[in-house]
Design a protein that fits this description.
By secondary structure, the chain is α+β, with helices and mostly antiparallel strands. The protein has helices spanning 30-51, 63-66, 74-82, 99-125, and strands spanning 2-5, 9-12, 17-18, 23-24, 60-62, 88-91, 132-138, 144-151, 155-160, 171-172, 185-188, 192-199, 218-221. The strands form four sheets. Strands 1-6-2-5 form a four-stranded mixed β-sheet. Strands 10-9-12-13 form a four-stranded antiparallel β-sheet. A three-stranded antiparallel β-sheet has the order 7-8-11, with no helix packed on it. Strand 3 and strand 4 form a beta hairpin. Helix 1 crosses helix 4. The longest helix is centred in the middle third of the chain and has 27 residues, at 99-125.
């Protein structure tokens, strides 16, 4: 975590973008972005508990989305070079607040830093395996259906559509867009789907071994169920 003032922002990578077009550094995957949002919800709730001051949703998210290009910040260094989840605070509403306000801001954001430590501790102790489900919905294209995955916690989903056992080299379920959740896959009705999920701590669903030899991966068929 690095801390700055001011503006009441709470942000993470990517921090840099190039012009024209505001093309950012590579975005986290859907699972990684979900982990950022989940941890951030805990940290921001801890900040708010001190005096009910909230960091607004419009000021929460990747730096390149909610602020300006911040190329060279330590958050990007930690994330892109070392794979460490890192955040950036912009504290308060003034660069030089009066003492009473400065003290209150210090206490509320200290709460956030303590919660960040709890997030790290929980991550290190996480041994819970994720669970995932497959949802099938009608498609606007005849003979096709729309498929989405959901998980019990922020997790990556790797899947195949050719009846092969899924591995880490299989297709990674992606994002529908910034703040839009998982993508929708449109596949032929009856497609057999094999998949597994793995959380950010490395716990694999069903203790599956995604090395090509395991067989206890998830299996489903892309068909609509009668109501």
């Amino acid at each position: 975590m690095n801390l700055h003032s001011s503006g009441n922002y709470f942000m993470w990578s990517p921090g840099a973008y190039a012009l024209p077009g505001r093309v950012s550094a590579p975005r986290p995957t859907l699972a990684q972005e979900s982990a950022f949002w989940g941890a951030s919800a805990r940290i921001l709730a801890a900040i708010k508990r001190h005096r009910n001051m909230a960091v607004t949703p419009a000021r929460t998210g990747p730096i390149s989305d909610v602020l300006y290009s911040a190329a060279g910040n330590s958050g990007d260094l930690l994330w892109y070079k070392y794979g460490i989840y890192a955040w950036n605070f912009e504290v308060g509403t003034s660069f030089q607040p009066e003492w009473d306000e400065a003290h209150a801001e210090t206490l509320e954001f200290a709460n956030g830093l303590v919660e960040l430590m709890r997030v790290a501790r929980d991550f290190a102790k996480d041994r819970t395996r994720p669970r995932s489900t497959l949802a099938v919905a009608p498609s606007a294209t005849p003979g096709m259906v729309d498929v989405t995955f959901s998980t019990s916690e922020p997790s990556a989903v790797f899947y195949t559509l050719d009846r092969a056992a899924p591995t880490y080299a299989s297709t990674l379920y992606g994002s529908a867009g910034i703040r839009e959740g998982g993508e929708t896959l449109t596949v032929p009705a009856g497609t057999r789907i094999h998949w597994f999920s793995v959380d950010s701590a490395g716990n694999v669903e069903n203790d599956y071994r995604p090395d090509g030899d395991g067989r206890n991966y998830r299996k489903g068929t892309a068909v609509l169920r009668a109501r």
